[in-house]
Design a protein that fits this description.
The chain has 264 residues and is an alpha/beta fold. The chain has helices spanning 2-5, 21-28, 52-61, 95-105, 146-158, 174-180, 192-198, 209-216, 249-263, and strands at 11-14, 31-34, 47-50, 67-71, 87-92, 112-114, 134-138, 162-166, 183-186, 201-205, 221-226, 232-238. Helix 3 (52-61) links the parallel strand 3 and strand 4.
């Protein structure tokens, strides 16, 4: 959205394109297509990709189009860096991940930048915030988050708070969870920022998008790190950092545009 606002012609392609993404993209004049609809004949100046299988697919379809790829995690195989002549720059979402990529994959340091996950500060901010008595976990209900969801729901119970879970159910344990825990579950909802602004505390992955969204709203986060099988490595309560402005979408867009201009 920020790139579109700055005059760029933006197309978003993904494997799962559905509401609310499609309606919001249409509102801002952003073209959205299923990844399977791309033919390789489209003319893009730059492709910014993420996730290993998607990046490999796009490298095959557009072998000469300059690319930037974002690595969102150093834990999952899905996020392993792809090496290809058309990939001109890599983006890590945290400084320790940048160092890991440089050290373990032999990518030159001048080809890897740290740029945080962007958050729309016009939606996620401290305006009209309140504090209700619930713990919020917004994220896909899948195998990777299973232990985190069980642990966070127990933390909420131990601290006398309600537990609200919002996300697509892509796992096989939600029904058992709801029997074992007194939780409130919703499919993804529009205006999720209203829930974030009213929660007692949010839950999320360390430096993940939902963590940053909560920080932007002035909320502390029950922050998790876990391994490749979803096992919890650490859990701690993190207050919003002092450099929170670095996470805003306009600051992230500025950093990305600098890279785009260098490789175009």
């Amino acid at each position: 959205k920020e790139l579109k606002r700055r005059g760029f012609d933006v197309t978003v392609a993904g494997m799962y394109i559905h509401l609310p993404i499609t309606s919001e993209a249409a509102f801002y004049g952003i073209k959205v297509v299923e990844l399977s609809q791309l033919t390789g004949d489209e003319q893009f100046d730059i492709i910014h990709c993420q996730h290993k299988p998607v990046t490999e697919h796009l490298c095959q379809l557009y072998p000469t189009t300059p690319k930037v790829t974002t690595i969102h995690s150093i834990v999952y195989d899905l996020e392993r860096p792809v090496k290809h002549d058309s990939i001109k720059h890599y983006v890590a979402i945290a400084s320790h991940e940048r160092e890991f990529i440089i050290t373990n994959y032999g990518i030159p340091s001048d080809k890897v930048s740290t740029i945080y996950n962007p958050v729309d500060s016009s939606k996620f901010n401290k305006e009209n915030t309140t504090e209700d008595d619930f713990v919020l976990l917004a994220g896909t209900v899948d195998y990777m988050r299973k232990q985190m969801i069980y642990d966070a729901s127990q933390w909420a119970k131990d601290n006398g708070k309600r537990f609200v879970l919002i996300g697509y159910d892509h796992g096989d344990y939600l029904s058992d969870l709801r029997k074992a825990r007194d939780i409130i579950y919703y499919q993804p909802i529009p205006n999720i920022e209203m829930m974030v602004k009213s929660c007692h505390i949010a839950c999320g992955l360390f430096i993940g998008r939902t963590t940053i969204e909560a920080w932007m709203c002035g909320k502390s986060v029950l922050s998790y790190k876990f391994n490749a099988s979803g096992g919890i490595v650490s859990r701690e309560v993190l207050a919003p950092p002092s450099d929170i402005d670095l996470y805003s979408s306009d600051r992230v867009a500025e950093s990305l545009i600098t890279i785009y201009n260098e490789i175009a």
